[in-house]
Amino acid sequence: MRRFFFDLLVGNVVMIDPGGMVFEYAEAPISAADQMAKHLFVWRDDLRDRDAWVRVRDDGGREVYRAPVWSENSEKAGWDQA
Question: Are 2 and 23 in contact, with CB atoms under 8 Å apart?
Fold first, then answer.
């Protein structure tokens, strides 16, 4: 099992994940990052119109994936706008 870290990138600000999460399968952190990004879009209206991403790093610090904080619907409506 490998440990992956999920950092929040907002513009040029990086909020580092200090603990990470352990996953058995290589695809799982990508799915988790996508779910985190969707959750952030819905609940954090301050991230909706900004260049925000969930970055996935492996235990060696190498970036393996980036999930944009965005909406699947064209209106880009969060919980407070639906």
Answer: yes
Quick one: how many helices (H) and strands (E) in the chain?
1, 5
Task: Bin 59: left if φ > 0, else alpha if -120 < ψ < 50, else beta.
Answer: alpha
Summarised one tens digit per residue, pLDDT across range 5-29 is: 999 999 899 999 999 999 999 899 9
Is the whole model's pTM more than 0.85, yes or no? no
Cβ contacts of 55 within 8 Å, gap of 6 or more: 6, 7, 8, 9, 14, 33, 63, 65, 66
Q: In this structure, what token pair is assigned to residue 12?
A: 């040029």
Q: Report d(CA 68, CA 40) in Å as an integer.
A: 10
